[in-house]
Amino acid sequence: MNEQTTRSAESSPQIARQIAPLKFGVGQPVSRKEDPILLTGQGRYTDDLSMPGQAWAAVLRAPVAHGRIVRLDTAAAGALPGVLAVYTAADMDAAGYKGFRCGLPLKSADGTPLFAPSRPLMATDRVRFVGEAVAMAVAESEAAALDALEAIELEIEPLPAATDPAAAMAEGAAALHDDCPGNVCLDWRYGDGAAAEKAFAAAAHIARVRLENGRLAVAPMEPRAALGLWDAEAGRYVLHAGCQGAFGLRAGLAAQLDVKPEQVRVLVGHVGGSFGMKAAAYPEYIMVLHAAKALGRPVKWRDARSDSFLSDLGGRATVIEGALALDSEGRFLAVRVHHLAAMGAWLSAMGPAMPSVNMQKNLPGPYATPVMDIRTTCVFTNTGPIGPYRGAGRPEANYVMERLIDQAVRETGHDPVAIRRRNLVAPEAIPYAAPSGLTYDSGDFGHLLEAGLARSDWDGFDGRRAESAARGLLRGRGMACYLEVTAPPGKEMGGIRFEADGRVSLVTGTLDYGQGHASAFAQVVGDRLGIPFELMDLVQGDSDQLITGGGTGGSRSIMASGKALLAAADRVEENGRALAAHVLEAAIADIVFEPEGLGGTSGNPGMGGFRIAGTDRFVGLMDLAAWLREAQAGGTALPEAVPDSLDAALADDSPPMAFPNGCHVCELEIDPETGTVRIDRYTAVDDFGTVINPMLAEGQVHGGIVQGIGQCLTERMVYDGEGQLLSGSFMDYALPRADLVPRFDIAFHPVPATSNPLGAKGCGEAGVSGSLPAVMNAVNDALASRGAGPVDMPATPERIWAALAGPRG
């Protein structure tokens, strides 16, 4: 297993030159197929679409975080020029639509099921967070629809609001839902409490931390938008919207509309980012479709950025209390976590799973910790619902584990490297049954640690710290050995279709919103079938062309779609062998498939095709497809045993969860006079199993690290005591900027997974899991050199300055 290495943008061209240019197969750093379209402004996003005769919708949102609706009068708004209709919850109820309900089969420790109230499309008797939809106006123009919102008479009697889970649980706090006293919807437990108690009692040392993962705005480049219409002739709804999977969104919409899935069609163009947030079916989509059917014309809606901060699913929003028990030599005996999680006013589809089940799966990381004990308390708060955000519980688990290790290092004097070496799962222990209930099938965790140390010049740190000190700056370093668990298995579509124009369509139920699927999937199929990379196109955003689809999320796309496409390729080969036997006038048993044939009559060396074994008689796969098209066009009848198509479309069982892992090292400087942080060096060595496309994988790592840096240093949604969002725009919500990010040193050490035919492990979210602890451990290492800290996320200049100015620990 050789290390695959890249150094930011410098080395990818060098790698490309080292690899034969005849074929873009697995392992080559091929550019994304969609880049020329996007870079020349030819991308087609939802807001780029318009239809003849379309109307415009605008949504009135609750201006208070909690209150009873005393009066809602839409008469004046409906009478304004150009206004076509104003809808409220009463209209949605009359139409018979279903509410949104979280269906997770989770139970509290006492056996009671998750309290999961049905969320209405619009607020009915009460509003529960600022930004909750109260009414929707539809007009001839967007301006007229917005004017109508101003004319709606809304009176709300305020109720006490709590945006913090501890405050929402406090005695006397107002209940958000009448049947949920104390606002606790789930009190979940996992692990061996008795064994943990015994381990902690016998421990030579116990490290403890209390960590905040503040609420984050997902803030994708493209805000949500929708264009809906009612196809009266077909008797079905059609929705254009950005999402993470057309098939999954169709199922969600059909459930809410209370119709059969085939009565809904979802069409997705380009998607400008999602990070988990656009996976859900949102109330606005149902409202738009309702208006389109009621008015008999297309209806378009687009969210303003200020409304996105209020109405999009938020990320994180948890407080974690962790404890790590160690023996006298620094071996981990047990880890204990209490996770307090704000759910928002309503439960999203995945909300309670992230701080519970995902914490369970990811908390052990790459360490041989024998016992763990987790308690998760999920609480309703007067904020918008929480949903998945890049990592969805995985970064939080790795973060608490690595912060506990560094806390133990500070308190015991153990070496931060030695203590990790001592506790990493050894190669000979794999397959390793972790206390999470999962079995790690592959990994070389110690090698990644050593590679991270070498590439980051760990031993040269003292000299760099002295040089920083000479300039009046504090230098800190932090490391993190992470392991995360990808999304669970499901069903995924694999489709390969030979088109009339000589091109080949790859059809899949995952959906690319920045990952580069078109290139990676083409590399997989090109390797298997020898179809030229440049002839393959990706079909993904039309639910009518899908037979199933799990969507993109949980770092599983290359495993799920890759496996499904390989299964489809097997069927193409099977069809092609029978057809080639007919064309070459041979028995099927004598036909062999060669992914790299002689090229056939097309004259393209390297194309896959079929040969009569032991002879030079050969027909290329693409030539065979052309022959079949011509034969069918000419009315040539084929024998009954000969397939009339090379195409394949199937639903495939996705592979089990995989375990991406790695070692990240961050070095940074802090100016003690201002509290500002400058990240100086960042090294990441990751094991993603087989790396299909190093360039794309590196880009995924870059993006994940940057989002981790943002959470560590700048990002947080802040509410006042009445539940009003104070950081509701890019003027006061600080996304990471280019000047905050250093040049990354990225390397790959692939240890192929045994759980899928590609050996892949996924890479989309790993950068966050590594960067959260690496960056914050570096911040607190710098502060500890002055006897200050630790500080929590976000480590803003104000917090750092206050820690340095305050009493020394």
Automatic annotation (TrEMBL):
The keyword Oxidoreductase applies. Pfam families: Ald_Xan_dh_C, MoCoBD_1, MoCoBD_2. It comes from the Bacteria. Residues 40-160 form the Aldehyde oxidase/xanthine dehydrogenase a/b hammerhead domain. Keywords: Molybdenum, Oxidoreductase. This is Xanthine dehydrogenase family protein molybdopterin-binding subunit. It comes from Marinibaculum pumilum.
